[in-house]
Amino acid sequence: MSNQDLTAALREFQEYKRIREEADNAMKTLQAKITAHMAMQDVTEMVVDVYRVSYKPVTSTRLNTTALKAAKPDIFAQFSTTTTARRFVVA
């Protein structure tokens, strides 16, 4: 790939990134409108035409690794795993 081709690919990548960000913002705006309507109706689920929409709380339990590492560093070390990944960044 030539430098010119690489520049064109990076420019195209940035354009798609911008389009994705715009789409994400538009989706967040629409979601806010839909959930506001659901809140006004005091419902967590609804069916509209062919769409089934739900907006419910989800509860999850997570391990506080910072507290575990401070309180029980030996157990933290025993059950910790290290992973390596690559991160692609265009700035």
Question: Could you characterize the architecture of this molecule?
Answer:
The chain is mainly alpha-helical. Helix content is 58%, strand content 9%. It has a domain at 3-58. It has helices spanning 3-41, 65-71, 73-79, and strands at residues 45-48, 51-54. It has a two-stranded antiparallel ribbon. A hairpin with a 2-residue loop joins β1 and β2 (51-54). The mean pLDDT is 97.
- Helical fraction: 55-70%
- Which H/E pattern describes the elements? HEEHH
Give the DSSP E fraction (strand runs of 2 or more residues).
5-15%
Number of strands: 2
Low-confidence segments: none
What's the pLDDT, averaged over the residues? 97
Comma- or semicolon-separated keywords:
2 strands; 9% strand; 91 residues; two-stranded antiparallel sheet; mainly alpha; flat
